[in-house]
Amino acid sequence: MTDQSSIPENDPADTTDADAPEMLGGQSGDTAVKDPEEWVTGDEPMTGAQRSYLDTLAREAGEEIPATLTKAEASEHIDRLQQATGRGATS
C-alpha cells in the first residue's frame, strides 16, 4: 500500500495550467516586426520568394535592382517598392 500523505494535492493557488497553449512574447508587443538591420540572418542571400516578389515589384516600378541582395537589403527594397507601386500593406 502506498503512503498517500507524500502525494501533493492540487494547490488552488497554482496558476500553471498544463492544458493551456504555449505562449510567446507576452506583453512586449509585436516581435514579428523587426528592423532588417537587426535580423540574425539578414546577411544571408535573399530567399527565392523575396527574389520573385522583388522582380515583380521592380518591373512594375520600372527599376532594375541587383540580384545579389541580402535578405535584409531585399526586405528594404520590397518595403520601398510596395510604397512606390501601391502594393502591400499601408502604414
Automatic annotation (TrEMBL):
<feature type="compositionally biased region" description="Acidic residues">
    <location>
        <begin position="11"/>
        <end position="20"/>
    </location>
</feature>
<feature type="region of interest" description="Disordered">
    <location>
        <begin position="67"/>
        <end position="91"/>
    </location>
</feature>
<protein>
    <submittedName>
        <fullName>Transposase</fullName>
    </submittedName>
</protein>
<feature type="compositionally biased region" description="Polar residues">
    <location>
        <begin position="82"/>
        <end position="91"/>
    </location>
</feature>
<dbReference type="InterPro" id="IPR021425">
    <property type="entry name" value="DUF3072"/>
</dbReference>
<feature type="region of interest" description="Disordered">
    <location>
        <begin position="1"/>
        <end position="49"/>
    </location>
</feature>
<dbReference type="Pfam" id="PF11272">
    <property type="entry name" value="DUF3072"/>
</dbReference>
